[in-house]
């Protein structure tokens, strides 16, 4: 009963969050489809549960005694034959897929310079406006940034491999499970629900996994391009141990959703750059433009913080996006002013002071951009891990026949997810650009608290759950030995 109450409390909380986030659904068919499927499954489970609890046990004892046993079997979630537990787990896996899609749109709304639904790829303004005619050293960065942003906002059918996954999963599911399916004693409706559930839920998770891998692949190409530029290979490499570098906002897969930290840091650095900027009279117009953008940034950021404190999230979001957009526009004249300095060493010119401040401003812009992208990676990785664990428990919570194909799917999907996810985590830890921006050793595997937590959550826990489902007695025995050793150690 506690598990049922917790589940429905979670469902009600998510539904309330959905209603508040309804603005995200306009023009997003994928989110609406996930909502419809998830809501249908939750409704189906709730309806079945209502039918069970509506009958009074005392009346059933007089009229239909066998329904008493059905009532007890259904509500005893740990019995191994309850029809509620697998339904709740699969429904929750599908619903979490919708929840992650809504979270992705919510995160995208916080990030300016993304393409609108009516725009073509590449038409949106740049977050890192370094690639333009006056900054040829950054040539090619715009295309790479567009690819990263496209992996966030594009429809699922536009993600490479998503359409193929529909047919591959269906063919394997048909050949290995549906053709050999043995009807259960709980009726055709029960069987139909799980036939659909064990296909739809893995498909949604496969789509999220593909978006996760392709988003990281696009981001890695952008990071590699940045690592070749003197901004990273020279300036960041020489100054990464300075105090202001260590005070930059964290960029990792355990950091919560970006708030105002990176935006405020970038705004402060923009002001520091403008305060020391000294340009000749022929560049007065550029100086005025920079001053106007700095003032606009500070004004909109102040309004965003004011409205956020009052709980007016729409106004806070609008001004926050405006402040970040002004900083993105500011990076264009700053990168243009610094273009001729990439071939000179630090301190070689009398205006090295404002050039140094300008370079660090570009660094803060890169960090702000990466924080937004890593929030999406964290959201997708969490969905895949939790969803696969829910499907594994669902497959083992009821005697489905044939059982072997479902266990085979769990083995293959979880091991594939763990291997690919851990491989991406290793690449994140070894990346040169990320290492210089976060104060870690670039090109080496950095065993940090963030890395260990990611390995535990997305690697060790799924493997233990998989072994526990396949060899429950052995895993229980291992844990009993560990508890004995712990007792002796204490």
List keywords for this structure.
490 residues; elongated; mainly alpha
Strand content: under 5%
Indicate the low-confidence ranges by residue numbers. 23-27
Compute the average pLDDT. 81
Taking the alpha carbons of the first and last residues, their distance comes to 36 Å
Q: Report the order of strands and helices.
A: HHHHHHHHHHHHHHHHHH
What is the structural class? mainly alpha
Description of the structure:
The protein has 490 residues and is mostly helical. The protein has one domain (111-483). The protein contains 18 helices and no strands. It has helices spanning 2-20, 29-54, 57-63, 65-75, 84-110, 141-153, 162-176, 188-228, 230-239, 243-246, 261-276, 284-310, 313-338, 352-396, 404-430, 432-438, 449-470, 472-489. Helix 11 runs antiparallel to helix 12 (284-310). It starts with a helix and ends with a helix.
Quick structural overview:
The chain is mainly α. The chain has 18 helices and no strands.
Topology:
Elements: H1 2-20, H2 29-54, H3 57-63, H4 65-75, H5 84-110, H6 141-153, H7 162-176, H8 188-228, H9 230-239, H10 243-246, H11 261-276, H12 284-310, H13 313-338, H14 352-396, H15 404-430, H16 432-438, H17 449-470, H18 472-489
């Amino acid at each position: 009963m506690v598990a049922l109450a917790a589940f429905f409390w979670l469902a009600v909380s998510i539904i309330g969050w959905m209603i508040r986030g309804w603005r995200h659904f306009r023009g997003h068919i994928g989110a609406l489809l996930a909502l419809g499927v998830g809501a249908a499954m939750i409704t189906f489970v709730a309806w079945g549960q209502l039918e069970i609890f509506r009958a009074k046990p005392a009346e059933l004892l007089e009229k239909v005694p066998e329904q008493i046993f059905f009532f007890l079997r259904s509500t005893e979630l740990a019995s191994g034959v309850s029809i509620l537990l697998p339904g709740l787990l699969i429904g929750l896996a599908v619903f979490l897929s919708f929840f992650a899609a809504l979270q992705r749109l919510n995160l995208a709304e916080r990030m300016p310079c993304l393409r609108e639904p009516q725009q073509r790829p590449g038409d949106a303004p740049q977050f890192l406006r370094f690639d333009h005619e006056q900054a040829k050293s950054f040539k090619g960065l715009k295309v790479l940034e567009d690819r990263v942003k496209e992996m966030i906002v594009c429809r699922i059918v536009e993600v490479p491999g998503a359409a193929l996954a529909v047919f591959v999963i269906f063919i394997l599911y048909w050949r290995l499970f549906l053709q050999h399916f043995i009807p259960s004693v709980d009726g055709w409706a029960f069987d139909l629900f799980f036939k659909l559930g064990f296909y739809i839920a893995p498909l949604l998770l496969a789509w999220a996994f593909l978006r996760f891998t392709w988003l990281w692949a696009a981001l890695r190409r952008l990071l590699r391009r940045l690592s070749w530029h003197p901004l990273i290979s020279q300036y960041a490499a020489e100054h990464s141990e300075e105090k202001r570098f260590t005070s930059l906002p964290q960029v990792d897969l355990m950091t919560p959703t970006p708030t105002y930290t990176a935006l405020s840091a970038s705004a402060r650095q923009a002001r520091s750059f403008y305060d020391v900027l000294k340009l000749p009279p022929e560049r007065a117009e550029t100086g005025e433009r920079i001053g106007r953008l700095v003032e606009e940034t500070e004004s909109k950021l102040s309004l965003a913080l004011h409205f956020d404190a009052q709980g007016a999230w729409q106004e806070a979001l609008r001004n926050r996006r405006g402040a970040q957009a002004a900083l993105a526009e500011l990076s264009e004249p700053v990168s243009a002013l610094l273009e001729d300095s990439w071939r000179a060493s630090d301190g070689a010119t009398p205006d090295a002071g404002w050039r140094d401040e300008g370079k660090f401003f570009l660094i803060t812009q890169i960090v702000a951009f990466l924080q937004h992208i890593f929030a999406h990676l964290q959201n997708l990785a969490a969905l895949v891990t939790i969803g696969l664990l829910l499907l594994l428990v669902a497959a083992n919570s009821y005697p489905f026949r044939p059982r072997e194909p479902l266990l085979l799917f769990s083995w293959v999907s979880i091991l594939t997810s763990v291997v690919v996810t851990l491989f991406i985590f290793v690449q994140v830890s070894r990346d040169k650009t990320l290492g210089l921006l976060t104060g870690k050793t670039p090109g080496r595997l950095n065993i940090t608290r963030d890395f260990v937590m990611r390995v535990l959550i997305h690697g060790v826990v799924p493997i233990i759950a998989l072994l526990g489902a396949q060899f429950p007695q052995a895993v229980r025995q291992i844990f009993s030995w560990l508890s004995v050793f712990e007792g002796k150690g204490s």
